[in-house]
Amino acid sequence: MGSAILLKLAYLFLLYVTTWAHGVDNMSSNVTYDHRSLLIGGKRHLLFSGSIHYPRSPVEMWPDIIKKAKKGGLNVIQTYVFWNIHEPVEGQYNFEGRNDLVKFVKLIHEQGMFVTLRLGPFIEAEWNFGGFPYWLREVKNITFRTDNVPFKYYMKKYAKMIVDMMKKEKLFASQGGPIILSQIENEYNNIQLAFEEAGRSYVQWAGKMAVGLNTGVPWVMCKQKDAPDPVINSCNGRNCGDTFTGPNRPNKPFLWTENWTAQYRVFGDPPSQRTAEDLAFAVARFFSKNGTLVSYYMYYGGTNFGRTASAFVTTRYYDEAPLDEYGLEREPKYGHLRDLHEALKLCKKALLWGSYSVESLGKDLEARVYEIPGSNVCAAFLANNATRATATGTFRGLQYSLAPHSISILPDCKTVVFNTQRINTQHNARNYMHRDESNRNMHWTMFQEKIPKLKRSHIKNSEPLEHLNVTKDESDYLWYTTSLRLHVEDLPLRHDIHPVISIQSLGHAVHAFVNDIYVGSDHGDKMDKSFHLKKAITLKAGTNHISLLAMTVGLPDSGVYLERRLSGIRQVRVLGLNTGTLDLSTNDWGHKVGIFGESIRLFTEDGSQKVQWSSAKGSEGTPLTWYKRYFDAPHGDDPVALDFSKMGKGHAWVNGESIGRYWVSYLSPLGSPSQSLYHVPRAFLKPTNNLLVLFEETGGDPQSVLVLTVNRQTICSFVSELHPPHVKSWARDKGEIRAIMEEVNPSVQLKCPDKNKVMKKIEFASYGDPSGVCGNFTRGTCHSSQSESVAQKACFGKNSCKIPVTQQTFGELECSQGVVKTLAVQARCGTKKRSS
């Protein structure tokens, strides 16, 4: 649906519901609820929410992301509160920079939007340790998330601290602020049975504790069937319109706190997708079945900077959301959902105050209707639940063509203004652009990480210690060191036979060195973090040194007994000696937390001056190596990314800011890395001399690392001759809304996302039976030779264009019987040349 049409829809919405709409700037009353919806200032609302997490983007990006969310039709922003970043050390608090929760909430308020605050304190969120600070694990006699006195003490203390902070800043709606809803706990039903009665009593305590904080707004527990009154139980999932049995009391509204826009990814995962059509169907279904609040998880995922990602989770988070990792609008998902929100807003009066009924229109067809008796207020949702066949349904004397697996929205019970399967917004594709100004004169230098030995280890024990108890999550890395003395007669007699080192670990990964020589690595995965490394090694007569660099790749984020999880090396043996297998598990072991470069902050300007760097030429393949270079920021304001396609595993920093863990050598079943491009926010950059530091664990090629910019200036449209007509405008006739339809002939409409850009290149055009997706179209067996010239004439050099999809436009075209002629056009936008 074009932007002009959206504006007209929005204008109608304002006209239609003026007496019923109570905007988000009226926030000075308590928030309550009834069976239908949340009541804000005593008025019912339709709420369209999206999850945006403040620590997953720099402060400088927040305003633009929030504005785009509002432009996409949202009126609520939802965020977790992250205990471990706010209280990393017991009693020491951090609300600065990306952790500035108050500033984030105030920016949302400035945009006239509401806020849902998910306190947890357990949040999961694919966040390190599920949001719990590590020090909580070491509290005496503590058991997380159950009727445990120490845990409840710290949980209440934390929750009260956050609530008091919000109250002090007058951020709850009861104080005139934007926060209309808070969440306590998170998907507790997933583990509740493990605690039996203690789990049931904990749920009751948590709900009563939260309500006792007196925020003046309701509390919610997601996926919690036994949420205690007055706490609302809500749904998380992909299809809550079909899977949610509803609230546990008839006086509570249907709320959807997480509608998963795709799926987060872990290292080793293939790409994750969820179509715009499927998302729209799920949302329309939910609202057609009494739902009044949906929250997209995520609407903008952002980036897991530093060591914030949980076990094996990639640095990029929910890139397939309506706003991608860089904050760019992903079309058609962004636009299709925006159109859906506008269509649902047109139904607001009927949805919130109408009576509800369901009518069968035939096999797999149904109508869900909301109307106010004695008035002309009526809205209908016509559903075709069959997944393959288009069907025709008759509703109140009129026939409607219903696409498979689709819902048509009729805000006047007559006119279809939106169908979940019919996308009218344009598509786009993401481009990564090589920038010469940032990649010239690439001079990499290197520093070799030190490999410790037993005698220099600070922590010694008769056997390998558990990883987390030693590192206390201050570093991913823990060195295990030992030595063994061998005689000549212990060694194999033949030179082509080698002993084998056998290392059993509870995870997550390990690099093995024998006598300072790298012998190999192994790792677990998200589902089975333990592994068994076996490698041939070379030993000598005399003393042999074994150094094992074990590491976690984030801490676990879910499941029962988080505080009891274990990691690290459990058994080390040497096989194939003449004297038999040698078990080193009870040998003397040394332990060293972290790596040398970390301890001196080698990734900062000051820290990098503390060592001697040498040329990195020919160093590719060298494990445990630090690399450094400087680069200038790319011109313009497009987002920036680093291409690590030929690196291995490690960590990256720009000007001392961590952009996260990379692990491109861990391939998905498709044979490609789960992530090879890494976001560098513009806020991290200076105009020139930006310091890029990599710690490469297994040996990659730093010369291959490129600085790129990112855009979505490739725009596309794909429209068939049978594409339904659009709503052109609306009129009011004796109190009824009436649609004025566009001309029956459908058309391709393209518009550059930036008003200062024009279509510089027509990259593809085909009228006939083209196939593919934006960025990857191909011609079919039927193609009009005039396609390119028509598109070039209509669109080249323009900010927007329109091409009728008709045979008159492209000339006679003979296609195979049954082919529906379609026009696909792809254009690349760029900066308009200035006239001399």
Protein architecture, described:
The chain is α+β, with helices and mostly antiparallel strands and 836 residues long. The chain has 5 domains: 27-352, TIM Barrel (Alpha-Beta Barrel); 354-424; 431-448 and 599-711, Galactose-binding domain-like (Jelly Rolls, Sandwich); 474-585, Galactose-binding domain-like (Jelly Rolls, Sandwich), CATH 2.60.120.260; 714-831, Jelly Rolls. Helices cover 18% and strands 33% of the residues. The strands form 11 sheets. Strands 4-5-6-7-8-9-10-11 form an 8-stranded parallel barrel, surrounded by 4 helices. Strands 19, 33, 36, 38, 42 and 46 form a 6-stranded antiparallel β-sheet that branches. The chain is globular. The two termini are 37 Å apart.
Uncertain segments of ≥5 residues (pLDDT<50)? 1-27, 728-743
What proportion of the residues form beta strands (DSSP E)? Answer: 25-35%
Using the coordinates shown, work out and report the CATH topology of the largest domain.
Answer: TIM Barrel
Q: Spatial order of the strands in the main sheet? A: 4-5-6-7-8-9-10-11
For CATH, the homologous superfamily of the largest domain is named as: Glycosidases
**Overall pLDDT, averaged?**
93
Label the overall shape: globular
Q: What helical percentage do the residues reach? A: 10-25%
Annotation, overall tally of beta strands: 46
In the CATH scheme, the class of the largest domain would be Alpha Beta
Quickly give the structural class.
alpha+beta
Main sheet attributes: strand count, strand direction, barrel closure: 8 strands, parallel, barrel
Q: Please tell me how large the radius of gyration is.
A: 30 Å
> First CA to last CA: what distance?
37 Å
